[in-house]
Write a structure and sequence with these properties.
Elements: H1 9-39, E1 49-60, E2 64-75, H2 78-97, E3 106-120, E4 125-141, H3 147-156, E5 161-168, H4 173-198, E6 201-211, E7 218-220, E8 239-253
Antiparallel strand pairs: 1-8, 2-4, 2-5, 3-4, 6-8, 7-8
Organism: Candidatus Uhrbacteria bacterium RIFCSPHIGHO2_01_FULL_63_20
Protein name: SIMPL domain-containing protein
Length: about 250
């Protein structure tokens, strides 16, 4: 038989007190967990932040140049025209390699075979006149002092089209670092001025992003003289500009 109230009053009071304490403890714990959940991932209030954009740039002399050239060959039959085109291009590439261009820096960028037609104004018909085989090659030159010699050589040895040079910087990471430092300085200066105008101060940075406009270096040429009369052209690489934009969000306090 269970003891009555009169028989075990102290034990009963203890059980009641323990139950009440347990209920209060669980309620307090649940409230704390709820508050923590509401705080997790809670953004800094917009009215306490400003976002400032900064721009930076760095100039560097390009150390790589790309030149493209091609050979177009006409013939009555596809197979024989292809062979003539291959022979002409291979002979041309041997001349280019002799100037110090590495095999690893030579890439076929296009190869096409198509039938050629002549329009007959009397009948209004297109009359086939044979086949054209076209092969395009792009070379990367790591010694930019030899660009003039390469352009002259390909022009004198069978190239039917030439384009370039396109100047780039092989490893622009140091220029990006320089441009980033310039952009950060620009953004911080603007943020300090604005915070001072608002009568506030910057506590810390709460957001950062960056991007390079245009996706690559911008060339600035001093001069570039085109080919003429089969002679070696005068080529000036000038400088490449690396641009970087940053966007920084600052937390402000009184």
């Amino acid at each position: 038989m269970m003891p009555t109230w009169e028989e075990n009053k102290p034990a009963t009071l203890a059980m009641i007190a323990l139950s009440v304490f347990g209920v209060l403890f669980l309620s307090a714990k649940a409230e704390l967990a709820s508050r923590e959940a509401r705080q997790v991932g809670r953004p800094v209030p917009m009215e306490h932040t400003i976002t400032i954009d900064g721009t930076g740039k760095a100039l560097g002399k390009p150390d790589v140049a790309a030149v493209s050239f091609g050979v177009d060959t006409r013939g009555a039959e596809v197979a024989s025209t292809q062979q003539k085109n291959t022979d002409a291009m291979n002979a041309l590439l041997e001349k280019v390699k002799a100037l110090g261009v590495s095999e690893d820096d030579i890439q076929t960028s296009n190869y096409s075979v198509y039938q050629d037609f002549r329009y007959d104004p009397n009948s209004g018909a297109s009359i086939p006149t044979g086949w054209i085989v076209s092969q395009q090659v792009t070379i990367k030159m790591r010694d930019t002092a030899k660009i003039s010699s390469v352009l002259q050589t390909v022009g004198q040895n069978g190239a039917t089209n030439i384009s370039g040079p396109n100047f780039t910087i092989d490893d622009p990471s140091s220029l990006l670092d320089e441009a980033r430092a310039d952009a950060l300085e620009d953004a911080n200066r603007k943020a300090m001025q604005l915070a001072q105008t608002l009568g506030l101060r910057i506590e810390r940075i709460v957001g950062y992003s960056e991007y390079a406009p245009g996706g690559g270096p911008i060339p600035y040429y001093e001069r570039a003289v085109g080919m003429g009369g089969g002679g070696a052209p005068s080529i000036a690489p000038g400088q490449n500009e690396v641009d970087l934009n940053v966007s920084i969000t600052y937390k402000l306090v009184d």
